[in-house]
Design a protein that fits this description.
By secondary structure, the protein is α+β, with helices and mostly antiparallel strands. The protein has 2 domains: 129 residues, Alpha-Beta Barrel (N-terminal domain of MutM-like DNA repair proteins); 124 residues, Orthogonal Bundle (Helicase, Ruva Protein, domain 3), CATH 1.10.8.50. Helix content is 24%, strand content 22%. The protein has 6 helices and 11 strands. The strands form 3 sheets. Strands 2-9-5-4-3 form a 5-stranded mixed beta sheet, with helices on one face. It has a 4-stranded antiparallel beta sheet with strand order 1-7-8-6. A hairpin with a 2-residue loop joins β3 and β4. α1 packs parallel to α6 and α5 packs across α6. The longest helix is centred in the C-terminal third of the chain and has 20 residues. The two termini are 28 Å apart. The chain binds a DNA duplex through loops.
Length: 274
DNA sequence: GTGACCACCTGGCCGC
DNA sequence: TGCGGCCAGGTGGTCA
């Protein structure tokens, strides 16, 4: 499933494929994907716009157009593919952007969880959804003091809180397990009970894990691949996630899987004792 | 403000 | 072999 490194990989791939292309028409085949505005307005406003740049904020892709930003969240299995207009539609292709050069960018999403917003350029960071996002992992404002302040009232397990996109963006279930393992932090520990040393480890290992994952093109688990079927290689580096019953790479204890607030969580009971 | 729970959605997997 | 039920997951909404 796309987390920050996967979105970064998709962004870079798309920049090579659709930059400076002008939208001739838009087809919305499953309107629930379009969160804002109504799909008929979404289509009308997109026609004639050119894709001038593609950025990323957290797990959101930001297509910079002439007058708008098209925001796209891939959620679980969203992906983009360049197609020929003559290609038949896959049943999971829900939105199609037709370009003036006779190519198409199609949004495919097996589970239909992905969402798109069309936001006026001036409102990008003051309106939903970007105004509710926390700090990027590499933001210099991400410090122990920042996390102490954000976590002081959080009684939930750190595994739950580290996924909170209003504090740090980009961490999903896979990387949360890896970050907590590298930080020797038990996923059940209440966020408010973490000391400064543990918070610093979370910051350092978040940056380390996500940087490494981006270098390797992200992680491909189960059905997820990025644009054009590019497979990430970081899954080979996963130390605990998806390793239930395997030996811990550090202490050789058995890695266990538990549920924390409904999320599958993999960890080593011996190494992760803080 | 916070936490718990549910809905969204479909393919894969498992047990019968 | 076929069927039913459960699971996976990120996010937003509702309610206490």
């Amino acid at each position: 499933m796309p987390e920050l490194p996967e979105v970064e990989t998709v962004k870079e791939t798309l920049k090579l494929q659709v930059l400076n292309k002008k939208i001739k028409n838009v087809k919305v085949l499953y309107s629930n994907i379009i969160e804002y505005p109504a799909s008929d307005i979404f289509i009308k406003e997109l026609i004639g716009q050119t894709i001038n740049d593609i950025k990323r904020r957290g797990k959101w892709l930001l297509f910079e157009l002439d007058n708008y930003y098209l925001l796209s969240h891939l959620r679980m299995e969203g992906k983009y593919n360049i197609r020929n207009p003559k290609d038949s539609y896959d049943k999971h292709e829900h939105v199609c952007f037709e370009f003036t050069d006779n190519t198409e960018l199609r949004y495919k999403d097996t589970r239909k969880f992905g969402r798109m917003h069309l936001i006026c350029k001036d409102d990008l960071y003051t309106s939903k959804p970007l105004n509710e996002l926390g700090l990027e992992p590499w933001d210099e404002l991400l410090t122990v003091e920042y996390l102490k302040d954000k976590y002081k009232s959080k009684k939930n397990p750190i595994k739950t809180v580290i996924l909170d996109q209003s504090i740090i963006v980009g961490i999903g279930n896979i990387y949360a397990d890896e970050i907590l393992f590298l930080s020797n932090i038990n996923p059940f520990t209440k966020a408010s009970e973490l000391d400064g040393e543990s918070l610093q480890k979370i910051i350092d290992n978040t940056r380390r894990v996500l940087t490494d994952a981006i270098k390797m093109g992200g992680t491909t688990i189960r059905t997820y691949t990025s644009s054009e079927g590019v497979h990430g290689r970081f899954q080979q580096n996963l130390l605990v996630h998806n390793h239930e019953g395997d030996l811990c790479p550090v202490c050789k204890n058995i890695i266990v899987k538990v549920q924390i607030n409904g999320r599958g969580t993999y960890y080593c009971e011996k190494c992760q004792n803080n």
